[in-house]
Amino acid sequence: MNQPLNTPPPRRVPPAPTGLGGSAEPAGPTGPAVPHSRCPAAAAKDPTPCEGPRDAATIVDRHGREAAGCVHHCARLLAGLEGARVHPFVPAPQALDIYSRARELPPFAWEIGR
């Protein structure tokens, strides 16, 4: 039931501007668009996309290690970590959303198609 927390330390990513085509991918330094990577809280085998900012919340495991991520992936991470919690400085509406979502999920939800 314990999910390893081997994510890199959180880093701030500025929100991407949307272009005329509705794409959220900014133009790279050489001109073409660079695809976004997922938030650090997303598990490698989890195929679901991020929801909202990739640094919306931070999850702290029972050993004090932290992982920042979007609300969706933080909830999925929290569901699989025993003794984990949402960082105390996360705004209350986001923290409640994460706890509510995590309560409805089984650990490793992507393995059963959820």
Mean pLDDT: 75
Which spans have pLDDT < 50 for at least 5 consecutive residues?
15-35
Number of helices: 2
Q: What is the element string, with H for helices and E for strands?
A: EEHEH
Q: How far do the termini sit from each other?
A: 17 Å
Query: Reading side by side through the largest sheet, how are the strands ordered?
Result: 2-1-3
Specify the helix fraction band.
10-25%
- Alpha-beta content class: alpha+beta
Shape: globular
Largest sheet: 3 strands, antiparallel
Proportion of strand residues: 5-15%
* Number of E-state strands: 3
The radius of gyration is: 15 Å
What would your notes on this structure say?
- The protein has 2 helices and 3 strands.
- A hairpin with a 5-residue loop joins strand 1 and strand 2 (66-69).
- The protein is globular.
- It is an alpha+beta fold and 114 residues long.
- Helices cover 20% and strands 9% of the residues.
- Helix 1 (71-80) packs across helix 2 (92-104).
- It has a 3-stranded antiparallel sheet, covered by helices on one side.
- Residues 15-35 have low confidence and may be disordered.
- It has helices at residues 71-80, 92-104, and strands at residues 57-60, 66-69, 85-86.
